[in-house]
Write a structure and sequence with these properties.
Prolyl 4-hydroxylase alpha subunit Fe(2+) 2OG dioxygenase domain-containing protein; about 90 residues; single chain; mainly alpha
Length: about 90
């Protein structure tokens, strides 16, 4: 549901997805059967990527888990990344 635009409830078909801008105010409803999965992707241009890189040094150590060589959630992926990407 997107409260700013009314009370219509959107339900994609089984195996489908609902894709929308992260700027849209949204609300989810209770799961009554099956499972809900969320895939959060952030797409941005070169200028925004440069800003993000510049801001990385300001992150608290606990917030750096998304950085490739410091991945605390999947450390084996970070090791693989280091082995396959030569600077």
């Amino acid at each position: 549901m997107f409260p700013e635009f009314g009370r219509k409830v959107y339900r994609p078909p089984d195996g489908g997805a609902l894709v929308f801008s992260c700027g849209a105010l949204h609300q989810v409803t209770k799961i009554t059967r099956g499972k809900r999965y969320a895939f959060l992707a952030f797409l941005y241009g070169e200028e925004d990527a440069q800003k993000r890189e510049a801001n990385n040094s300001r992150l608290h150590i606990g917030e750096r888990q998304y950085l490739g060589d410091q991945d605390r959630l999947f450390p084996e992926d970070a090791e693989l990344h280091q082995m396959t990407h030569v600077a």
